[in-house]
Amino acid sequence: MKSCTPHLVMVLVQLAYGGSNILIKISIEKGLNQLFFVVYRHLIALILLGPFAYVLERKQRPSLSFSIIMKIFVLSSLGTTIHLNVYYAGLAYTSPTVATALSNFIPTLTFVIAVVLGMEKVKLRSARGQAKVLGTLICIGGSLIFTLWKGAILYRGFRKRPLIHIYNEKYVLLGHAKDEWIKGSALIMISYIAWSAWLILQVVVYKVYPARLSLNAMICFFASLQSSVIALYFGRNPMLWRLEWNVQLLTIVYSGVVISALVYYLQTWCISHKGPVFAAMFSPLLLVIVALFSAVAFAERLHLGSLIGALVIIMGLYCVLWGKRADGQLEGASEDGREEFSANKTLEISTNDGPVMNRISSEKK
User: Fold this and answer.
1) Global pTM value
2) Which of 79, 128, 187, 332 lies at a 20 to 30 A Cα distance from 341?
3) CA-based end-to-end distance of the chain
4) 164 to each of 25, 45, 101, 171, how far by Cα in Å?
5) Which among 312, 315, 231, 317 is positioned nearest to 37, based on CA atoms?
6) Residue 43 and residue 261 in contact, taking contact as beta carbons nearer than 8 Å
7) 8 A C-beta contact, residue 260 and residue 220
8) Percent of the chain whose predicted confidence (pLDDT) is above 90
9) 309, containing H or E segment
10) What is the DSSP letter of 120?
């Protein structure tokens, strides 16, 4: 049962993300302001994480220096303030299916940024290095196909009319306009670049501040602070801060409690046990979940360009993941070899010590 726990956790994580994408899309179409949504979402997560971080990591939490605070501030800017606000702006122009399909590009973006910063080494003469480079190029091509080419309609949905009406009638019949489709996809890709940079910087910050709950709580604090400044500047109408009992409030509570507080922690736990490659392999599942729900609830149509682009992205993703996994297996084998060599060396020293001591003691006699 323990061996299946990480798999079940990642399936639940993808289901949670799928529900979040659907709820956020509905709420944005119903009038939810994305700037204030980001503020409320992280305030809720901060209220939940703060007490646990204070009690459970009281002895583990290191002291804060100005350098660490600035790193966490930049980390919060990339992974929450920039990523979420740009992502929600793009989601307003396109569908949740598009957003989740392009999310398969995140591992490749992370790999490229890591190579540029010197944190990832690529040996082009090895099959592992060639797979990672080829997978990166395939993902880039797939994202361009998905973004720029819609193609003919392959499937018109399970229903003629949506169960949940979030578009006007003309919008449903004609689909997303091409310029809005490209604009939304471009914004979502920019948000994923910020998210990939956040993943890279998180490794750096965690080395100097290894308290996970406290780190997440501080990220939520800075995210709510940064987003509050942006929201006050762009949305000066006090009525925008008002909350009512509707789907917008449900989305805020769900995203704060389930996504920002619970899912982020579960992802961190799973990565610490099975590694980032294992976690990334479940990202195509999110596309399937959201696509099926959107086909039923929103009566979305499947286009040829979307299908080909998504399949190409997934193919490139698994090329990169195969190369990363092969690197991990090689590193594990080399570490085992070093440990075996060290053990043999220790055994040799210990067996040679006995006769030497005996000879010395016999000479004294």
Assistant:
1) 0.73
2) 128
3) 63
4) 11, 28, 21, 14
5) 231
6) no
7) yes
8) 15
9) helix 304-364
10) S
Question: Which residues have a Cβ under 8 Å from the Cβ of 143 and sit 6 or more positions away?
Answer: 102, 105, 189, 309, 313
Instruction: Please give the Cα distance from 151 to 343 (Å, whole number).
Output: 62
| Tokens 């929103």 sit on residue | 298
55-59, 94-98, 164-168, 263-267: range with lowest mean pLDDT: 164-168
- Res 80: pLDDT: 87
Residue type, 267: Q
Q: Which amino acid is located at 299 in the chain? A: A
Return the ∠ at Cα 123 (arms to 122 and 126), rounded to 5°: 130
Let me know if 51 is exposed, middle or buried by CB neighbors in 10 A (0-12, 13-18, 19+). exposed
Closest CA to 306 of 331, 287, 328, 286: 287
Query: For tokens 């003691």, what's the residue?
Result: 361
Residue 237: what are its φ and ψ, rounded to 5°? -80, 115
Query: What is the rounded (10 degree) CA torsion for 71, 117, 199, 99?
Result: 130
